[in-house]
Amino acid sequence: MTDDSNVLDQLISRIDDDVLRSRLAHEVDLLRGSRRFGLVFDRHLPESVRLPDHPIRKGIRVALRDESSTETWVVDRFTDRTREMAVLGGDGGERHVSELIVVREFGEPIYPGLRSLERIENGPADAPWHVVINGENFHALQALRSTHRGKVDLIYIDPPYNTGNDGWIYNDRYVDKADRAKSSKWLSFMERRLLIARDILRTDGVICISIGAQEVHRLVSLCEQVFCTQVVQCITVQTSGGKPSNGLDYMHEHLVVVTSGAFEPSATSFTGGVARSPWERMTLTTFTPVTRPNQAYPIFVDAKTGALHGVGKTLAEMIKAGDYIGDPADFVFETDRTPAGCIAVWPVTSQGKECVWRLIPQSFLADWEKGLIRITPEKLRGEPSFRIQYIAGGNQKKIREGVLVPSGTVDGVPTLIFGKGTTAGTSVPTIWSEQGHRTSRGNKALADVLGEGQFPYPKPLDLITDVLLGFGQSNRDLTVLDFFGGSGTLSQAIMRLNAEDGGSRQSILVTNNEVGATEAKRLREAGLHPGDRQWEERGVFERVCRPRISTVVTGVRPDGSVYSEGFPANVEIFDLTYLDPGMVRRGHEFESVAPLMWLEGGAHGPRIDEMPEGGWALTDTYGVLFDVDVLTAFAEAVTDAATSGTSPSVIFVITDSEAEYQEAVERLPVGVETVQLYEDYVSNYTINIAGGAR
């Protein structure tokens, strides 16, 4: 089709020869049909990953463990049955296996598994488990594409900003400002991961990406290409309160937001800014009854209606009246004066730690009259109880000053609006400015947890919280993924928000154990290399993310000091492993594949870690039929569970026979999702550049 404004079409139209003019026009149309519009960049060679723990076997590509050479070779054979000396193809010669490390390029088949490192059960039994995976995020994403295709509500990531000073790694090499191809490498790096993220996200899901000034323009274009039917918007986030010393990029960064066409921020949760709940727990762990006896008292709540009945005497009042003469530190939080039909709620955490209320009784009752206190049911150490929450004085002041604007309610919960500026025709702020979004807040939060700052520029908790509330559409059951998990801010923010509003959001965090460029140089000078224990101890996962998550859940730092009361949450921390398919086929690696089935079942409750002798296993959330010969008993158990209200969300049927699988589907209750797994079940989780086997 010609265009009279196009120079080429104008020149073709001047050709007198009708046949030549027609042929040229046809060829130009073909070229136009094949030409790629949009962001154009060099797509660099696939990345590779070094696997320190993977066994050296024939046919596997290897490199030198000490990094003295960038060359790789394929193991041709071994010199004898001990398999200690490997003969390398090409000019690699003979090398002892201890000198070698397995290298896999992205695109080669990988057999993933998960090895549990730490399992912390500190929340209700029916709460979803938060998951942390340490490993190469490209491979972790591919495994999650198999378990979570179309299931994730919200993705938030904070990838490398490609400033030239942030020392991010491409193909095992740090990329700096001297690299002429740093932007095209960064785009190749991001495109591979965003293409998989697109498959994991729900059709109505949202992806939010924090990014700096260096790549924000290219990232917006990349997102428009990858998420071609979605809406891509950009928010500027103020990260510093000072004057710019060298350009605005030191005061601001950006949040690129990709939403579906169906995404319509509601007026109650997102208008001219990001809404967040102002409710906070009214317990204060900083002080004990020794120093604040007038803030230790019972709050009486009607057991059936949840209405406030009144408050009891404070410890200070009891001491003054002579009703208690012991050491305040030994005071037992219990009373025999609880009114009939009521529950006495004391300032006790879900872990049983006694603290104090943030308000004295007079202030509590006054705020209750103003609607600034709310009471919601919960279970405390397995027993029925109530959670007391309030709007703190700081937020009350912001409401009075107009910094926060009440915007109605969401599920009966008042919400507040942060930020003022809006983009024409949208509800997304062009400038998102809040004290809690400042970089210094992220540094302080991490230092508070670990006792020292150990990670550059961690994201502020309040920024992540506002993303969750603003783009989560007030959904308290979100499944949220961060595959550039870094120091673990997202998981802490979700656990904190769940504790505040009673939500059951689930976080899936993928991080790695990279060592910073400066630290890596120092370690190499000391003769250390990736895979060495001293090297791995300095990585971000081992040094920052894992201890941070453990500390915020348990409330105890690695050195034994007390950080907090801990969050009522369950979390499991895994290593991403690369399995030997031969070992899997012989039934030796099921415990590494089992967590993937558990994840696909929603990561709730117990996990089926062993192949049972009876040939099948069933939990409240998923089931596995290992042997179709016992289909009758298994189908009866699933039917009983479904009729009793505990229907599993997914059933795995392990068989190579399509006929046997169809028979199982027909015998199982209607509405239960079923998945066929090959008897060589590792094949179901084979991942490569093109995606999984299913």
Automatic annotation (TrEMBL):
Coiled-coil zones: none
Keyword S-adenosyl-L-methionine: yes
Keywords in alphabetical order: Methyltransferase, S-adenosyl-L-methionine, Transferase
Highest rank taxon of the organism: Bacteria
Pfam families associated with the record: N6_N4_Mtase
Span of domain DNA methylase N-4/N-6: 152-262
Gene3D superfamilies tied to this protein: Vaccinia Virus protein VP39
Classification via PROSITE patterns: N6_MTASE
Family statement drawn from the similarity comment of this UniProt entry: Belongs to the N(4)/N(6)-methyltransferase family.
Name of the molecule in the record: DNA methylase N-4/N-6 domain-containing protein
Organism the protein comes from: Gordonia alkaliphila
